[in-house]
Amino acid sequence: MLLVPTLNDHSEIPYYIQLYDYFAKEIIGGALPSGTRLPSIRRLAALCGISATPVELAYQQLLAEGFIASKPRSGYTILPVHRNGSPAEAEERPRPAVRPITPRDSRQYAYDFHMSRNDFSLFPHKIWRSLYQEQLANPDLLQYGDPQGEPALRGSIAAHLRQFRGLRCTEKQIVVGGDQYTLCSLLCLMLKERVTRLGIEDPGYHLLPAAFKRGGYEIMPIPLEEDGLMIEKLYRSGADAVYISPSHQFPRGMAMPVAKRFALLDWARSAGGYIIEDDYDGEFRYHGRPIPALQGLEADSPVIYMCSFAQSVTPALCIHYMVLPEELLPLYHSLRSELYLEHSASRLHQIALHYFMERGHFEKHLRRMRLLYQRKHDLLLRSVQRYFGDAAAVSGRDAGFHLLLTLKPPAAGSARELAAAAEAEGIRVTPMSYTWCDKPDCDEPEFILGFGGIAEDLIDEGIRRLAEVWLG
Question: What pLDDT score was predicted for residue 100?
Fold first, then answer.
C-alpha cells in the first residue's frame, strides 16, 4: 500500500488536486481501506518534497467530501465509503474542475502585431510556483496589508530603481497599487489643490489623462518635435503639471535629450508644477544602455515617477507603483487616513515579487527578456526594410515593444482602411491616429507595429504578407 503519491512537477494540475485525485481514487478503489491512518500534513509534505499548504488543501477537500475524518491526537483516518460500482470505475472519478481562462480578446489573428502583448516563452514558471507555495504557508498574508504597499517590496523596488534607473528615492516615497488607474485617481485627489491643468504629449498615451479629465482637470495637448515635447508650447499652455514618457515616447519612440530634460525641470520650478514621468518600458533598450529616468537628474525634483511590472514580469501580477516627491508624502498620508485606503494589489503577489527581486531572479529575467525582445526588434526592422523598402519609413527603434511604420505617398488608402484590409487577411496593426488628442480625425498612414507578443518565427512572414496587402 503506497501512501506517498508520485507528483508530476511538469503538470499544469496543482499539487493539491494531484494529491486529492490520488487519495480519492485509492479510497474508492479499496486500496486504502477505512481506518487507515494517513501521514501527518508535515510528514507527507516532507515525503513529497513540497510545502505543507498543498497537502493541507487536499486533506481539507477530502475531509469536506467525507473521505477522511480528523480526530485529536489521532490525525487523519479514512472513513468507510459505500461503493455501488467497481474499483475500475474509480478511475473515471472526475477531479475538481479547473475553469478555462477566457481570453481578453476573443479575435484570432494569424499575425498579431498588437502594441500591448508580452512574450511569456521564457517566463520562469517553476520559480514563481515555488515562491507562491512558499508564501501560501504564511497565514499572515491573509490579513490586511499596508495600503501603501508591502514594505519589503517597496524596499526592493527602491533598490532596483536606484541601481538600474538612476532614481533618487527611498521605500517611503513608493506607493504600490493594483492598476495604473487607481494610482492616477489617487494623484487626482492629491493634486487638486495645486494643479488645474495637465499638459500631455500629443500624440501620446491617454489612460492617465482620461483619469485626470474625469477628475475635473483641464487637459492641454502639447505637440511634439523631433526630440520630444515642445517646451515653449508647454510654457504658453498655462499647464501646472505635465505627463510625459521621456525615455521612450509613446508612440513616436524618441528619447528626450538631457538638455530638454533640464529645460523641463526648469519649467516645473518656474511654474511651481509637477512632472509625471511614465517609464513603462524604460528597462528595455536594445542598443546601448538604458536611459536613466528623468526623476534622478536633480535632488528633490518635482517629478512623480510611474511604472509597473506589467512588461518586465507579467500584467497578471497587477502591480503598479509610483514614486512621490517627498513634499507630497504628507498629502498622500492625509488622503490615506481620510479615505481609509486599503491595499489594492494582492499581498501574495507583492511578497512573492519581493523575493523574486531580492534573490536575483528579476535581474536575470530582465537580461533574458531584453535579449529576446532585441532579437524580435531587429528581425521586425529587417523585415520591414526587406519587404517595404523605400515605400515606408520606420521610427521609434532601439527600445520598447513597438516600431512606428509610416507609408510614404501615395498610400493605397487611409490608415483605417489599410488597417481593415490587413485585418481581413489575419494581420493586426494599430493606426497611430488613436493616439492623437488634438487631431482625432487624423487618418495619415502611420501604424504602430508591436513585436512583444508575436512569435519570432511569424514576424518575417507577417510583414511579407502585410506588404502584399498594402503595396500589391
Answer: 56
Is the peptide bond prior to 251 cis by the omega test (within 30 degrees of 0)?
A: yes
**Most confident stretch, 104-108, 116-120, 148-152:** 148-152
What is the identity of the amino acid at 67? F
Q: How confident is the model at residue 82 (pLDDT cuts 50, 70, 90)?
A: low
- Provide the sign of the torsion angle of the four alpha carbons 116, 120, 122, 126, taken in this order: positive
Q: Do 193 and 338 share a domain, yes or no?
A: yes
Of 12, 18, 47, 50, nearest to 130 by C-alpha is: 50
CA distance 272 to 135: 44
Model confidence pLDDT, tens digit, residues 418-470: 999 999 999 999 999 888 887 766 788 999 999 999 999 999 999 999 999 99
Is the per-residue pLDDT at 161 higher than 70? yes
Total structural domains within the chain: 3
Residue 61 lies in a domain: yes
pLDDT (average), residues 166-182: 95
What mean pLDDT is reported for the chain? 89
Say whether both 381 and 340 belong to one domain. Answer: no
CATH number at residue 69: 1.10.10.10
Q: In which domain, by residue range, is 178 found?
A: 144-359
29/50 Cα distance (integer angstroms): 26
CA nearest to 159, candidates 298, 362, 369: 362
